[in-house]
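Side project, low priority. Logging it here so it doesn't get lost.
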Amino acid sequence: MSHHAVRRPALVAGWLTLLALLVCGLGGQNALASTPRWAVLVYDGIGTEAGALVLGRVIEDRGLDVPKAGESTLRKANRLRRLLASHPLAKATVAISGAGKTAKLQTDERGFFKWRVPGGLEVGVHRVTARLTRGQQQRPVPGQLTVYPKAPGVLWVSDIDDTVLATDVRHKARMIKGLLTTNALELQSFPGVVDVLRAGKAAGHALAFVSGSPWQLQPRLRRFMAHRDLRRAPFFLKRIGLGDDADALMGQDGYKRRQLERLLKLLPGYKVICFGDSGEHDPEIYRALQKRHPGRVLGVLIHDVGGLKPKDPRVAGQVAFRKWPMALAWLERKGLLRTRKTAPTAGNQALASHRSCKPRVSVPLSQAASETKARAGAAARSVTSSP
């Protein structure tokens, strides 16, 4: 594969980010409306009993509607425009609570806030809510914090586009057309990926998604995951804009490296299994991770979406697969799906609750394992409360 072919997907991600930048504005300015209503978003967090991280954002509440089957292309495009165009609320004070902890935080220039949750946490899934401390009109949108055992375990880190979600990222025009003409209910996951993620959950493995998509697309990705019955897990997405704290517009390498290092610090001692695809720089990014942390990466699995040759040096020492059942078979052969000894089987299975979009309050892992399909379906529909 030529150097140009390898670099093209990064340029695609850059163009998508540029599109979002142009639509939503280049600064952290507040919304122009005289009396705006704000959506106080809590993104899903992750950590261990020793400490965790929860991210969030305060943006103008644009009253996004619910995606429906068979709706017009105009309505789909309008929803995307609203996702990208909601202005942030800068320098606002947010009161946040969850997992028996509380804190007051300040949003930055782009409306983001970061909560480093102190230790002494209970293993399980915890509801996290946040509100503006002043009297602004607001709509809190809760998230959830998943706390894993402090004892070392296994962390799965996965890309999204063309790894889990079929986006055709190698072809810029088709990918952008799909973004503009589909809603979250029409997005497709690859056959077999649900089974792999369920197997990881049953083994008690932690999971986080790292993607080059901008944070503005988080509601779309969250609805897609819920609709396709994919395991719910925190996203780590791009902060777009100008300034030193913004992620690079073009290219993924530096951005993904920082997110991977953040996750390794959040779950110290955990071994890592990485999932990516051949359409972007995932093989090279994960190889660099293997070199920085020798012995900590248990495996790198690369979804071959085209372009890989037999014994391609890009994936030397990694596992390239065309179909997700092949990845599942490799994980089973390597004994990487065995239930961890530090937690009961029911507790390991409980992380299925990640696919529900309205988390419960401080649910122990053993209790969460009893969730039924009906509860998951109802919770998935509750994602309509997210802007």
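Brief comment: The first strand starts at residue 38 and ends at 42.
Revisit when time allows.
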